[in-house]
Each structure stands twice: as C-alpha cells, then as structure tokens.
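Entry 14. Ran structure prediction on the chain below.
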Amino acid sequence: MCASLAFMVCCGVGVISAVSEYTKADEEIKELRQIVQQVDKDIINHAGSAETVTVKKSAGEQTGSEIKNPEKETGRAPHTIQGAQKPPTDILMEKLKESMEQQKERKITLPAPLLINGLVERVFTELVEQTGRTERNAALFETLHGINGDICGWITIDGTPIDYPVLRGETNDDYNRTSYNGSYSVGGSIFMDVGNAEDFSDMHTILYGHNMANGTMFKGLYKYLDSAFRDQYPYVYIDLPDRRLVYEVFSAHGTVWWDALYDARYEAGEEHLALIEYLMESSDYPVAYEPKEDDHILTLSTCNGREGTIYRYIVHAVLVRVIR
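Output, structure tokens:
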C-alpha cells in the first residue's frame, strides 16, 4: 500500500515537473516571437512615418503577386509537384497585392489611421517586403544574433505550430535539450546538423526537432501523414539574414536513426539525384515531380513514438524559390 502510494506520488511529481518544463519552454519561445514581432513593427512604423512610399519594380526584382508564388523560381523551370494548392489566405493576400501592384511607379499615400487592424497591417507588411526581404531580415537577425550567435535561421510552416529559430552548435548535442537562450529545455531547440553549412547552401541540409507531447517543436511534421494537408500546406519557409528560402514538400516517411540518408552529403550530380529518387520512393504517398541533380533538399527529422531513440519520422522538401 505504502509502496503503491509512493509510486503514485512520484508519478504525480513527474507529471507536474514535465508540465512545468513544457510551460517554461513555451514561455521562452513566446518571448522570442514577441521580439521578432516587435522588429517587424519597428520596420512598419519606420516606413509608415514617411508621408509616401514609392513602389518600384526593376529588372529581376520580385514584387507584388510574385512574392508568395513559389511555383516559379527565377532562372529555373518550375517543378511539377501534383496537387499543390494555395491556402485561401494566400489567395486573398495575392488579390490584395495585385491591387497594390497596380500602383507601382506611383506614390502611395498611407494614412496612419489605416494601420490599426491586422489585415491592413499584413498588407502593409507585404508592401514593405517589396522593398527588399534582405533589409527586413538583416534587421531581424541583427536582433537575434544579439541574443545568440548560433541562431542561423528561422523556420515557419503554415498550418502547424512550427515557427522557431534554427540553431547550429558545435555538436549535435548542443541544442538537443537546450533553449535558444542557453537554458535547459526539455524540448530543446530546432537545430541544424553540425555537418551542414549554416547558410543552407549545401545540397542536402538536415534539421532536427523533438516530437513534443504538447504539440510543440517538430510535432507538427506529423500533419504530413495526410497527403491532403501536404496539398494545402506544401511550403516550408526558411528565413536567413539576407533572404527567404521557400521549399516544397515532396516526401514524408518513417525511418531509423541509422538510415544512410542522414550521412548523405553529395554535390550536384548523379549521386545527389539518386538520393532524391530514393526519398521519392520512400514516401508514404506518391507526390510526383521532376527531380534535378542540382536540387537543394531540406530534410526535417523528428522522433517517432516512445521508441524515438530508434525510429524517426522525416519530411523532405525541395528548394523552389529564393526571395530577397
């Protein structure tokens, strides 16, 4: 009886401790997101303080409805991934931006009172981005690097809670149970394989994140078990100090930690093409596209169930657009 009671108390303490750790980790990431949001607001307020904003489009510059149209990439033919559909919110934003694009080469007056509701603010944010993703991200990462120089990117996937900084340590253990601010965290951080270049320039880049019971970190990857979700939310966004990378998901499947793909580091060529074809064949559902030997691949890896130390669930995406 006493032993049973002691066991129950220990279990209860363990559950409370876990919940406490989850809460602490969530609060820490919320604080960082607030900092990011403040940087964006500062950029908006700085641009909005002027009486007018001139929108221009020069050769090679991506503006207007092109901004979130990852099916096309400058200088390269589009991939033919079947079934990809834009979310309704993207369609709405494209229509609004098309209207704004008609004003290019003109001066657009932006009265301050208009910047009061979320939709108008989002539209204006897109307008600011037309002047250069590089400037926005430079300001953002200047702030992030002031917090932790190991922050090399920021990953976002619509339709999931995935909205986190990406860190790269000196080893793959550095951020396994460590938050972006250096404190212990049961959920750790989203981190890049130490074998990869922090500017995402490798042909195959791997990111890791825990599969947390409270839905955080890379738990959202499991949404890609449903091919309909992939059709609605096919894009993975990676923000870097000077650009945004847009990847399109083409494969999702389970594997084990010793899978050779984790060590695959190929330059453009036949070996890299063979890796891509292997990833396509391994997919839980058929998503056809035309692979190219110089495709840049992003692999997102998380643990699978209670035996997560052995099994993994991974999602693969191909780079389809670079926005500067």
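Confidence is low (pLDDT under 50) at residues 2-18, 49-80, 82-89, 103-131. Will compare against last week's run tomorrow.
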